[in-house]
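Researcher: Quick test of sequence recovery. Tokens follow.
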């Protein structure tokens, strides 16, 4: 083996120790099980819902205990993982000594046997494995609800899970089941309306508008209801009513916060439409638009067709996920450079220039539909300041699960 090999191996082993030793040295209970974050977060939300139902008298104490036990059963893997992490401090430090001996020995042995970096699991494969675990958990919940269709909290959890995964049609169906069981509750109505809107390219017209209006009657000060009500009114051209909802919402938000600035931008747009205030001068970068360079990874060249549709779009970091600006291309056009601007806004009150920071995505739609579906391919830039950025580059290389 060469000197170069030993230097490289030493650096890699040192990096491995930097990740492995601190968790082993820490006190029990300090290990963060990142791969279980998603289903643990969902469990916490459901537990809060159960406690609220018990406090309000919707369910009895016995029913609460039964549902709590069921929640524990669903998340048994998580509980086992956490339990395993709470090993004694002394045993953890014995592992340090073992790691100091075993890791270098195994590393050298693997290199002699395999001789190249292909023996390591690629990062993309690890990510895919984690996504598969999440999908399996959500599928298990969906299967359980087929045999227990009257579990309203289960349907709410499933609806949120599908929404998190951008499976909006399935999310809407789950929320419809929760609505069937729970009736006119503001939070259920709003989640159902939002999921329905996302199955229609973010548009609220029709049933989503009816659901939002009903939610606003039940909870006239609810921030989500005010936001969505303003969106529905602006989409329908009723700018005076949209202005009223958003001004009430702005008064509730902390001044200077990003949500407050976003709502103030919407208010300015509506006031301009109504002719009650002069248009604010927009930063030059936004006026010209945001340049987006889109390419496809080499690995996908044979997996997609030249005629497959490509959607390139910007979304607000908070609020409704409807695109602020969108351009439609084909795979045959890639690599391509497009400009996202206010001219491509789907709604007059939802413009790119209204937002300090946005998310930029480029997605190959295997179905040709604007709605994201499993099997599509996507590339994302999570946070961009349109007024301060000359351009961004996106490589489409992730599969939508």
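Model:
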């Amino acid at each position: 083996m060469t000197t170069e090999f030993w230097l490289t191996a030493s650096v890699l082993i040192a990096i491995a120790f930097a990740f492995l030793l601190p968790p082993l040295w820490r006190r029990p209970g300090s290990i963060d099980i990142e791969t279980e974050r998603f289903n643990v977060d969902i469990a916490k939300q459901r537990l809060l819902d159960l406690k609220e139902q018990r406090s309000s008298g919707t369910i009895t104490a016995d029913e609460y205990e039964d549902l709590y036990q069921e929640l524990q059963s669903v998340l048994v893997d998580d509980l086992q993982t956490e339990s395993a992490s709470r090993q004694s401090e002394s045993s953890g430090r014995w592992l340090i000594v073992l790691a100091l001996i075993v890791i270098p020995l195994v590393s050298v042995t693997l290199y002699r046997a395999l001789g190249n970096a292909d023996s390591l699991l690629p990062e993309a494969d690890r990510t895919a494995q984690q996504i598969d675990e999440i999908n399996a958990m959500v599928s298990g919940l969906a299967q359980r609800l087929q045999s227990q269709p009257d579990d309203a909290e289960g349907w709410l959890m499933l609806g949120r899970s599908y929404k998190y995964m951008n499976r909006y049609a399935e999310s809407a169906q789950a929320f419809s089941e929760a609505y069937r069981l729970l009736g006119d509750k503001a939070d259920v109505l709003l989640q159902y309306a939002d999921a329905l809107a996302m199955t229609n390219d973010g548009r609220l017209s029709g049933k989503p508008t009816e659901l939002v209006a009903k939610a606003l009657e039940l909870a006239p000060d609810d921030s989500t209801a005010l936001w969505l009500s303003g969106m529905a009114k602006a989409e329908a051209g009723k700018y005076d009513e949209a202005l009223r909802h958003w001004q009430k919402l702005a008064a509730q938000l902390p001044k200077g916060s990003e949500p407050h600035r976003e709502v103030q931008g919407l208010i300015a747009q509506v006031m301009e439409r109504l002719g009650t205030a002069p248009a604010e001068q927009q930063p030059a970068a936004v006026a010209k638009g945001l340049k987006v360079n889109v390419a496809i990874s080499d690995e996908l060249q044979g997996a997609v067709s030249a005629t497959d549709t490509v959607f390139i779009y910007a979304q607000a970091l908070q609020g409704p996920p409807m695109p602020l600006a969108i351009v439609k291309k084909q795979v045959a056009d890639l690599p391509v450079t497009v400009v996202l601007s206010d001219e491509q806004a789907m709604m007059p009150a939802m413009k790119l220039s209204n937002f300090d920071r946005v998310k930029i995505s480029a997605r190959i739609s295997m179905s040709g539909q604007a709605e994201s579906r499993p099997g599509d391919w996507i590339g994302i830039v999570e946070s961009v300041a349109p007024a301060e950025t000359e351009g961004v580059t996106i490589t489409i290389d992730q599969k939508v699960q």
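The domain at 133-274 is CATH 1.25.40.10 (Serine Threonine Protein Phosphatase 5, Tetratricopeptide repeat).
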